[in-house]
Design a protein that fits this description.
The chain is α/β, with parallel strands linked by helices. The relative contact order is 0.15. It has a single domain, classed as 3-Layer(aba) Sandwich (Rossmann fold), CATH 3.40.50.150. The protein is elongated, with a radius of gyration of 19 Å. The longest helix has 18 residues. Helices cover about 40% and strands about 25% of the residues. Helix 7 runs antiparallel to helix 9.
């Protein structure tokens, strides 16, 4: 969030923010805690219901990034926390520019695996191999402002600045495996196929982290563009 403030040229405190594809409100709650006047936009019924239970004091409206239910020139900042890839940029970019006031900012970010960490890269490779029949692909590092910006906005209308923010956390092995197992790829493959992988992965992790605590390392890929 400090990087967003730096690149957007303003503080979050007091900013009018719309968090699009808010899900259960993880990012929305953090924006609110930093003083933003934030509204959530979420298309999914289940996600919206969970959001309301978790954040009863934050407004939420139903909608998506391709057709924002927001007034023109009404926001200082639009955020997409791991949700921009669900949009059609050809529609979402003009909508973002419409809703943002002149000088407002669009911020997109994704948590990505830190592939320069050996055990993480090896785990990603094993996932790709084990689930290749279910559409899994090997991870590809996307470096550089030009490449990432082109993926976010193929039209080139927005001038994104790219920033990578690294963070890490320590979690029990079972928490790490539960997080992996919640990914859609594992659910599609079925319990037996996924279970085989998770059992073997647990053995490998306990060899690497004999105390049962895994150090997970992530890179947040952040893109911020100002609205002309």
């Amino acid at each position: 969030f400090e990087a967003i403030e730096e690149l957007a040229g303003r503080t979050l405190d007091g900013a009018r923010v719309a968090d699009i594809g808010a899900g259960t409100g993880i990012a929305t709650g953090l924006l609110h805690a930093r003083g933003a006047e934030v509204v959530a936009v979420e298309p999914g019924t289940g996600m919206a219901e969970q959001f309301r239970r978790t954040h009863p004091g934050i407004p939420i409206v139903r909608g998506d990034g391709n057709d924002l239910p927001l007034l023109t020139d009404s926001a200082d900042l639009l955020t997409y926390a791991q949700s921009w890839h669900w949009t059609d940029p050809a529609r979402a970019v003009p909508e973002a520019c419409r809703v943002l006031r002149p000088g407002g900012a669009l911020a997109l970010w994704w948590n990505t695996y830190a592939l320069d960490v050996d055990w993480i890269a090896a785990q990603v490779d094993r996932v790709a191999e084990h689930f290749k029949d279910y559409g899994a692909q090997a991870a590809v590092e996307v470096n550089g402002n030009g490449v990432r910006s082109a993926l976010a906005d193929p039209t080139g209308r927005l001038d994104f600045t790219h920033r990578v923010v690294r963070w890490s956390r320590h979690v029990p092995v079972d928490t790490h495996l539960a997080n992996i197992g919640s990914h859609s790829l594992f659910l599609v493959a079925g319990e037996e196929h996924a279970g085989t992988f998770l059992t073997e992965q647990r053995r490998i992790l306990l060899e690497l982290f004999p105390d049962g605590i895994v150090e997970e390392t992530y890179d947040v890929e952040l893109l911020v563009a100002l609205n002309a």
